[in-house]
Amino acid sequence: MIAVIHDRLAREGRITFSEFMRLALYDAREGYYFSAREKFGAGGDFYTASQVHELFGALLVDEFAAVWRALGSPPDFTIIELGAGRGELAVDALSALREKHAACFQSARYLICEISEQLQAEQRMRLAEFAARVDWVSELSEVASPVSGIVFSNEFFDALPVHLVCQRDGRLCELYVEQSSDGSLQFSEGDLSSTALDDYWRRVGTPLMEGQRAEINLEAVKWIEQIARVLSRGRVITIDYGDTAERLYTPDRMDGTLRCFHRHTLNDQPLERIGEQDITASVNFTALMEYSNDAGLKTLNFTRQTDYLIGLGLLERAADLAQQAESESPQALQYRLALKQLFLPQGIAAYFKVLVQEKRG
After folding, report:
1. For residues 270 and 177, what is the distance between their CA atoms, to the nearest angstrom?
2. Crossing angle of the two packed helices 2-12 and 17-26, in degrees rounded to 10
């Protein structure tokens, strides 16, 4: 991966951070998400909520079934998951749907949008028992006609490539990646690579301090437009860590929200361990809501993941499950600790938001 980056820099001199991040994460041969290295869970670099506890998927399914009924219980109901990781959430969701909402399950087609062939292969193995109901596409443009149903994602938008900008002398500048004299990688400042960056920040950004950095996710805007095209009626459920622009880019966050994960350790060195660590940025939900509205998606709810799950019955379901477990067994203790991650302030859900949007046919 380092050789790929250096080859690009030798030819072009410098590249935007968005292009660097795209190569580091999504290069078809050497990118982080295309490699065979373990990325998720205890042996990887980070956890997602679906890997913490299967109840996460079971609760989401209740929402899916409610949308199906609200649409008039159509015989063709499509659930699209963007970036399914190893497929745990898909397994939990389909298992719960089959057990609790049989009629909806019989109407459902589960479509996974996954660019990584390696992850697709892992998902196919994990979802073998549901093979008759699951399909895959590499991008939403492969969906032949608009569908009725759900488009949802869990930690998808945070992994899209972002441009890095900073405030300098009263205007936005862009951070580029280039080689230093000793051959290492470094940032340099320059003019914006596109007027779209300035337009984006004027609309959904917030005033920055001199020297303060921020991220601009133009890829997210493209995905929103694709989602709106593929969904004829139904809901979009976006679960990710982030917040509104005014809360993300406060004066005490001078370096923005970009972060890296390697072996469950957080760092702020994206130009190191290229292809071997995850690179993410907090989601600007102000941008998602504004651009979604342009695309015909109406915001119904924006809240903390904890509150969203509690609204779906997390506490009641947790109490029922706790009664079923043997209170003194090591498995029961591990189970309770995992469950707490979904709703305690210091748990995994504390940093996540849920955006629910609707499109009416």
Report:
1. 11
2. 150
pLDDT digits (tens, 9 = 90+) for 121-157: 999 999 999 999 999 999 999 998 999 999 999 999 9
Whole-angstrom distance, CA of residue 129 vs CA of residue 343 = 31
Q: What is the per-residue pLDDT across 285-300, written as a single tens digit (0 to 9) for each?
A: 999 999 999 999 999 9
Q: What pLDDT is attached to residue 49?
A: 44
Average pLDDT, the chain: 88
Tokens of 356: 């629910």
**Which structure tokens are listed for 268?**
């702020």
Q: Please, which pLDDT band fits residue 312 given cuts at 50, 70 and 90?
A: confident
For residue 181, count other CB atoms closer than 10 A to its CB: 6
CB proximity list for 220: less than 8 A, separation 6 or greater: 157, 160, 283, 284, 287, 288, 291
- For the stretch 165-174, pLDDT in tens is 999 999 999 9
Residues with Cβ within 8 Å of 27's Cβ and at least 6 positions away in sequence, in order, are 1, 4, 34, 275
Nearest to 17 by CA among 216, 267, 253, 201: 216
| Cα angle for residues 303, 196, 140 (degrees, 5° grid) | 60
Q: Is the pLDDT at 331 greater than 80, yes or no?
A: no
Q: Quick check: 117 and 34 in contact, CB under 8 A?
A: yes
List, in order, residues 6 or more apart from 192 with CB less than 8 Å away: 165, 172, 173, 174, 198
* DSSP per-residue codes, 250-265: -TT-TT-S-EEEETTE
The domains located in the chain, with CATH, are 49-160+218-359 (3.40.50.12710)
Q: Dig out the tokens for 6 from the structure.
A: 């250096």
